[in-house]
User: What shape does this take?
Amino acid sequence: TEAYLAKHYPSTPRFRVATPPPDAQKGSHPANIVSTLKYGLLKTTLSLGYSVLVCDLDLVWLKDPFEHLYRDADLEGQTDGFSSDWAGGSFGGIQEPAMGWGGGGLYVKVFTLNVG
Assistant: This one.
């Protein structure tokens, strides 16, 4: 990639960062290790003063996505959700009448397990 950019886009700014995997990920599945590397790269890039858009590699932008961000927050996120409950999380509860008063609980579903 670096040689290609140097040859075809010599005026394009670029930098290479050595980002070792966190110790907590050693011995993990390679996909998990690669996935965690983006956070170190994100931290380094933000510290240099750049705006950053992190997205899945299977995503294609047909227009400039930065034109559609409000930039009213330090961090904006995306979701794979297709409904409000799935995309934004939801509250739920369980109740076991046989346990009497207090025999239940509330929970917050804040993410959906996905294949990535």
Q: What stands out?
A: Strands lie at 90-95, 104-109. Helices lie at 2-8, 30-47, 84-88.
